[in-house]
Amino acid sequence: MKPILGLLILAIFISCDNNHSDRNPYLLETNFRYPINLNYEIDLRYPGNAIHIKDATVGIRGAFVFYSGSSYLAWEASCPNHAPNDCSTMSLEGLIVTCSCEGYRYHLSNGQLLDRPDDGKRYHDLLFYQATLSGNTVIISN
């Protein structure tokens, strides 16, 4: 019985890993809850549209919210591939957001970095935030 208990405890310690390699080292996790009233944000009523929420209480540099037609997606507006600085707030054009620091471009339908450099470095996709529809309000949060 003792050897089995010892193996179980060892397995628990081995499975507990403090390595947060999936977390973005440049962007701190912030806690917020922000309602978007669809009566005022008309663009978010139509599939394929996106808006930039520039409120200082949302994320690090605001958020981009995209309506796919079946769900809402929200992403951090600060470029995920370097620490926030003067040029890291991305700009929105259609469904593409661009970082003016390096010109990195990301697609709002999946948050992925477009034209990912093949230089062996690790690149991050957009930081995802929760987006839920409640009545006529989209609530983005983290």
Automatic annotation (TrEMBL):
PROSITE patterns with a match to the protein in the record: PROKAR_LIPOPROTEIN
Protein name as annotated: Rieske (2Fe-2S) protein
